[in-house]
Amino acid sequence: MYPAGGALSRPGRGDGEVLGWGSRRKEVTMASKESKKVEEIVEKASEAVESAGAMASETLDQARAKFAEVADAAKRGSRQVLDAADRARGVAKERAEVAVERLKGGYDRAHTDFDKLRGNVEDYVRDNPGKSVLMAAGFGFLLGAVLRRRGD
Amino acid sequence: MSEPAAGARPPDRAAELVDELIPADVDWRPLVVRYPLLSLAVAALGGFWLGRRRGAAILAGVATFAADSVESSVHRLLEAE
Q1: ipTM score assigned to the predicted complex
Q2: Which terminus of chain A, N or C, has less C-beta within 10 A?
Q3: What does A110-149 look like in DSSP terms, one character per residue?
Q4: Which residues of A touch B63 (CB under 8 A)?
Q5: What is the mean pLDDT of chain A?
């Protein structure tokens, strides 16, 4: 922005002061140097931005890959846990069935033994009614006497 | 006292004792044969009740009777010599 007629006025100086062609060339050279510097800076800045973008993209890709790995591992882990839970459930069910069978067998055996004992007692009482009644009464008598003494 | 016939069961002294303890109009044998376990339970309860109520007196009487029996037996033996 130079005034017409080749004169250049500088701000801060008097209105009548006019610069010559040498000074103007020097200023133009300085301006072009500064412009080059600015271009370099802009270029470096754009390179830095590109590099940062590339790095960010790479980091993002790595993060995605890691996330996918972690997700796969979590899926595998959950599948293993589910399989282990299924196996444990099967084993527990099997053991519970075995325990129930044993309990049932023990109950049946005890029931049979009790029935047999009751039958034997009934047969003995029918064969020896007087002796059985006296024995029962004597047992009750002794028990009552002992308990009374303890109570006193 | 007549001897039991061949093949017949010997007299049941326990049954005779129960006959003496229980009133004569109560026929207890068929009841015991029909309800054996219930009869045992009733007898045990009766004995328990007797032991609680008169246990000490009955035991003292039995002990006195036994002591008298032993004493009379010893006396008879000594007199015989």
Answers
A1: 0.73
A2: N
A3: HHHHHHHHHHHHHHHHHH-HHHHHHHHHHHHHHHHHHHHH
A4: none
A5: 86
